[in-house]
Amino acid sequence: MSGWGHEPSEERGQAPWSARRPDGTVPPWSTAETQTYGGHRPAPAPAPEPPRAHRPRRLVLALLAAVVLGVGAGAGAWVLIREDDGGSAGATDLTVTTAPPSGTSTSPPSGTATTAPGYRRAQDPVGYTLLVPEDWIRRQKAGEEAPVVFYDAPDDGRRLQIFRIAEPTVEESLAQAETAPGYGFASRTGYRALARDSGPGFAELTYRYDDEDKGPRLVVDHRFEAADGTPYAIRASGPEELAPERIRAPLTTALGSFCPSGGDCG
């Protein structure tokens, strides 16, 4: 059975091949929609009172207390901000960086050390870090095998779609996503493969199709092995009328900065 509901759906938040197989079973990647003394003794004669040592001490203690309270307040604010951001889909960013205390150092996150102009580093709760356009909005939908994460442009219809794949190789995954009967890319209205590329640890297909709601779309589907050996797919898409470079640019930056949690991406 074929048709829109059974075809790869970048627009509906499904992994590109989500649907039931012809025998009625569901592909393993199918989708779908994440803290003193108190008295005074008489003296025989008055004498000048020596300077009291405890006053400076009290002042020092007061200053130390203020510093401690200030640091504590800052840490509390960091916790609150982090908790709020971490639980909201579409947050501008998912991490908050604070200046480390004097005498300590922090290591830069894995992957690309610098942030490209116009991009932000997203530490995604699904389990990886990458650079995405700074004003793109994140959302997540549950797939059968793994979550499907989207970053959507606010105004021009471009999108990144990221998910883990289950096939043994990236080549097999891409071939099945394209040609599987009933739900492969090739069954989409107006489908046409435009370019193919492959190499050690990656496979890529660029194609176009006619979306019934959004019109002609251009898609670059790139499947690759991450630094820890886990296979992923990142798909960039947008209106076919846009320059291909505008659609591919976020994909290129995402791939160059992608690092799975705990991976050695230096």
TrEMBL record:
The keyword Transmembrane applies. Residues 1-53, 91-120 are annotated as: Disordered. Residues 97-118 have a biased composition (Low complexity). The chain crosses the membrane at residues 59-81. It comes from the Bacteria. Keywords: Membrane, Transmembrane, Transmembrane helix. This is Serine/arginine repetitive matrix protein 2.
